[in-house]
Amino acid sequence: MPRSPRNRPALTHPEPDEFDVLDILHALSDPTRMTIVQTLRAAPERACGTFAVDVAPSTLTHHFRVLREAGVIRQREDGNRRWTALRDEDLEARFPGLMDAIVTAYENGLA
Amino acid sequence: MPRSPRNRPALTHPEPDEFDVLDILHALSDPTRMTIVQTLRAAPERACGTFAVDVAPSTLTHHFRVLREAGVIRQREDGNRRWTALRDEDLEARFPGLMDAIVTAYENGLA
DNA sequence: CCTCTCATTCGACATTCATCGTACAAGAGT
DNA sequence: ACTCTTGTACGATGAATGTCGAATGAGAGG
Description:
Chains A, B: Keywords: DNA-binding, Transcription, Transcription regulation. The structure is a homodimer. By secondary structure, chain A is α+β, with helices and mostly antiparallel strands. Chain A has one domain (about 15-105): Winged helix-like DNA-binding domain superfamily/Winged helix DNA-binding domain (Arc Repressor Mutant, subunit A, Orthogonal Bundle), CATH 1.10.10.10. Chain A has helices spanning about 20-30, 30-40, 55-70, 90-95, 100-110, and strands at about 45, 75-80, 80-85. Chain A has a 3-stranded antiparallel β-sheet with strand order 1-3-2. The N and C termini of chain A lie far apart (about 50 Å). Chains A and B meet through helix 1 and helix 5 of A and helix 1 and helix 5 of B. Chain A binds a DNA duplex through helix 3.
């Protein structure tokens, strides 16, 4: 057998209809989470452990949940790993230009 | 004499150079504050008491401070009143398109 | 079977936050 | 003067948040 998902509580992903701008803004207002998002813009999909953020694993899990429940990222089980990707299309369809403006502004402010 | 400002701690307004995107996102991630911003988009300047938000006056003061310290609004003393306005130009100069994208997305999500 | 890796859940902790009531300060208007 | 209006400051309070360590569960690979 190729791969079977883990027997863990299913990952909850809101539908685009359920996205709330305020939740998204809140999710992105944290430096660690913004770093995660920025990293994901450069790579289509990453495993949890491959992010250059300086927090404990359990803290990282917490941040992923906040991003996931806001609709910013999608997570997929694959054996022992959990792959994370931006929900680019869903976000763009629901709130055109929003993510671009925010991430651009963030990178602009790093100077 | 026309008008003299109150004898109160001066209003602190950050310079555009000091704006922090994460602070702005955090400031806008609250429904009351977003309502304030949205209201200010329609009117150039308003007195504090003229906002249709359902919170106590002291709470309103708190929200104004958060917005002000993030650089979103500017407040001006005038006799007994405090006038509030969006810092449109400063925000646009520092983070082009950011406020537009966010407020548009917010209004889009009210449907 | 045993161990290692990956990421989670749980519980705890300190901090921040939104909210309010009360008291206060000062201008406006009578 | 006196009172009303405007908005703040302070202190308290309950909720949410970011952080971690320890324990857990499950796949991967020897």
